[in-house]
Amino acid sequence: MIEVTKKTVERAMLIALDTKEFSKETVEEHIEELEELAATAGAETIFKIIQTKRGIDPAFYIGKGKAEELAQLIELNEINIVIFDDDLTPVQVRNLEKLFNRKVIDRSGLILDIFASRAKTKEAKTQVELAQLQYMLPRLTRAWTHLSKQYGGIGTKGPGETQIETDRRLIRTRISLLKNKLEKIEAHRMTQSSGRKGFLRIAIAGYTNAGKSTLFNLLTEANVFAENKLFATLDSTTRSLDIDDTHKILISDTVGFIRKLPAHLIASFKSTLNEVRDADIILHVIDISHPYFEDHIKVVDETLKEFGSAEKRVIKVFNKVDIVSDKSLIDFVKNVYKESVIISASRGINISSLKTMLKNILNENIVEEKIELPLTATKKASQIHEFAEVLKTEYDDNKIQIIYRTSRQNSEKIKKIIAY
């Protein structure tokens, strides 16, 4: 993946389609978020267009007539890039680029571009490159190659500049190599996590820019990059939090979610997002000051469901209370969301309540057990280390005594191993 360090501001036109599937307010909120994404990528939005239409036009998405009308507007206002709020088919991209004579990308392409510019570690770069190549593969066209060379900028970072002229066979080979690389990374991550079985594991998840990294830094005194922008950080980071003199909690910060998150990106970031899958508890951080925070909650809940984490215990952490002007909103949240806490991570408001909640969960979920095994049961004794933190092991003439600490769930697994 090639990193582009020189940043030029591109003049963008944003286009969304209103098919009456959503309310007008929702469609407007979607395109406002697209504007924020465009700004994060380095574009200045000149026009936001919402086209009302019964259905999607298979050739031009918004219809040929509307596209021809916008082509004149694009030319007159020196628009560099046209960004659509939904995914476009290769045919639609080809037709629109030919008509507009400008770069045309969709929301997925824009998000991938942002991820390409934010990826810092080898793992993140590998994940982004894999997602980019999978996104690019069905979109290989002579026209796209011409435009990427001519215009550069947003939508052409990473493999787009070096791989677009190669044939599909070479790209598939590269995809295979990247998948193998990520499998090795995931195996290494699983080896690292095997030593954490005795701890309560918490993952911080939430909509992008909800304040996850700020909360993580506050709780753990870490120095994870936090910025008031979408997708400020891509890599998961795990730190310990001392709840009392004898117990620790392991907390992981994870990449933020967003509506219409590209499927390729979710698949590529599987190893990073496994921190969510493997957690005992999920802290779902929500920006309570955002006018559409309930919509954000639904997006995150649906994404967690995709990872098989829907049944996990989730604590909703409503952040940024310090900038909420409507105090009735706080009463609403308290009444509707029972297992929740309202905080400000940036100002440290009500963090003690969150820590108390975590301590109570620790007391509920972490147990210390003492078991006895015959001396011949060395395999079972070894398996206990996979599911628990072994505190003490003693041997006498005919038995092994083991004292371990682990979650209640893992303790049940250990008891089944012993009974088998």
From TrEMBL:
Family matches, as PROSITE patterns: G_HFLX (PS51705)
Ranges where the Hflx-type G domain occurs: 200-366
Record keywords: Coiled coil, Cytoplasm, GTP-binding, Magnesium, Metal-binding, Nucleotide-binding
GO MF annotation terms: GTP binding; GTPase activity; metal ion binding; ribosome binding
GO cellular component: cytoplasm
Residues given in the record as GTP binding sites: 206-213, 231-235, 253-256, 319-322
Residue stretches in coiled coil: 17-44
Membrane among keywords: no
Subunit organization: Monomer. Associates with the 50S ribosomal subunit.
Function: GTPase that associates with the 50S ribosomal subunit and may have a role during protein synthesis or ribosome biogenesis.
Protein family according to the UniProt entry: Belongs to the TRAFAC class OBG-HflX-like GTPase superfamily. HflX GTPase family.
Protein name, as recorded: GTPase HflX
Gene responsible for this protein: hflX
